[in-house]
Amino acid sequence: MRRKSPFFSVALVLACFVTAGFAGYPAPVDDYVNDYASMLNEADRNTIREMLSGFEKKTGVEMAVVAISSVKDYQADADIEKFSTGLFNAWGIGHKEKNNGVLMLVAVNDRKLRIELGAGYDDVYNAVMAKVIERDIIPHFKRGDMSRGVYEGTRGVISSITREVSFFEFYWLHIIVSVLIVVCVLAGLNMIKNGKKGWGFVFFAAAGLLLIFLLKLLASGKSRRGFGGGGSFGGGASGRW
Amino acid sequence: MAGIREFLKAEDIGTVVSAIVDAEKRTSGEIRVRIESKAGKDPEAKARAAFEILGMRRTELKNGVLFYLSVNDRKFAIIGDDGINARVPEGFWNNVKDAVLEQFRKGHFAIGLTGGISLAAEKLSEFFPAEREDINELPDAVSFEEEK
User: Fold this and answer.
1) Which of A66, A69, A96, A154 has an alpha carbon within 20 to 30 A of A218's alpha carbon?
2) Topology annotation, domain A30-168
3) How many contacts (CB atoms, under 8 Å) link A and B?
4) DSSP 8-state class, residue A95
5) Cβ atoms within 10 Å, residue B130
6) Total structural domains in chain B?
7) B57, B69, B79: best mutation site toward chain A, by most A Cβ within 10 Å?
8) In this structure, what CATH number is given to the domain that contains residue B131?
């Protein structure tokens, strides 16, 4: 057969993807904790897994903890930043549209770690992750308590990205806009009564636009398998101990 | 950025700090005030970052409270740590918020803050009473955005 069917070509390409999809990276064996370095003790691994699964159920945020002995085991020339961004994207951590995934990567023998954030996180979270690494993780890693460091770090990440913040506006903007809407409607009605129909509609249109603006103002006051296909542009923070 | 310093004049900062010192005599909760110029495209993220960078999570009982103000956006939030959120009922901060907003809307920022801080302490003391050997775990100074 000289000409292969298009279906066959597609199948061939897919097959390549499946087998070579994680080239240069480990293949995931668990949705939450992949401890290739046997760094965590059994009890902590289970606790962290439960924490992450509960976190995902509650907030929809996929977070993966990965421990390897060294990035050099997978890629000769990679540093932890490059490796963690690559791993994040290879696995597709996080919800694809929201890009809210989090990866905590520890390279035990390199004595380096990184918290990588999905592209959906505002840049200010990079500094937040740097603090989590510095305050929650490194002190335990320095004492050699890897399990505790990962546990406290996971808690720190969860706490710092989901902390409830409700804003209250202290400007009278809502009230000013509401009053303007009423004025515009009344002015429009008055114009129409006086026979100036064109002006009447201009005022009605203005009232409509203001109403949309007001609604926007008010609005601003407020079990899966595998990963969700999220990506990272390399946001996050790194640390060493 | 206009007004971040004018927002709270030097003499007003003093009264806010003494309100914090007094407040922390009544509760083991730790109160801080953060003033920023603009909230940016993700105001909640920026407020969470401020909470983290000021080290608000570093209290034994997880009972830090941050009064966060974004001057140019005219927004403010009261942010509590996990220990508080786990114990207090829904809408716990509502009357503190109302008291603060009432003054803020008149342009009385220092009065709004001091009143809010002292009311917050009173409410917190029910869940986190002052301890005899209470340690001041976090600084009492007002934190402005330009200072990290």
Assistant:
1) A96
2) Diaminopimelate Epimerase; Chain A, domain 1 (3.10.310)
3) 77
4) B
5) 16
6) 1
7) B57
8) 3.10.310.50
Domain ranges for chain A = 30-168, 171-220
Which amino acid makes up residue A82?
A: K
At residue A223 the predicted structure's pLDDT band, cuts being 50, 70 and 90, is very low
Q: Answer left, alpha or beta for residue B29, where phi above 0 means left and psi between -120 and 50 means alpha.
A: beta
Q: Using alpha carbons, list the distances in angstroms from residue A94 to A90, A100, A122, A230, A234.
A: 12, 5, 15, 4, 14
Strand extents, DSSP E, chain B: 30-36, 64-70, 75-80, 143-144
Beta strands in A89-218 (DSSP E): 102-107, 112-117, 168-169
Give me the sign of the Cα torsion angle B20, B22, B26, B28: positive
B-chain residues within 8 Å CB-CB of A168?
A: 75-77, 97, 100-101
Interior CA angle at A120 toward A118 and A125, to 5°?
Answer: 75
pLDDT tens, position by position, A28-73: 999 999 999 999 999 999 999 999 999 999 999 999 999 999 999 9
Does B53 touch chain A if contact means CB atoms closer than 8 Å? yes
| DSSP label of A73 | G
- Closest CB to B76 among A124, A127, A167: A167
User: Which amino acid does the sequence have at A122?
Assistant: D
pTM for the model: 0.77
Domain that holds residue B50: 4-144
* Contact call for residues B4 and B109 (beta carbons, < 8 A): no
ipTM of the complex: 0.86
- Residue of A122, A161, A165 lying closest to B79 (CB–CB): A165
- HSE-CB of B34 using CA atoms within 13 angstroms: 30
Q: Which of residues 111-140 of A touch B (CB under 8 A)?
A: 121-122, 124-125, 127-128, 131-132, 135
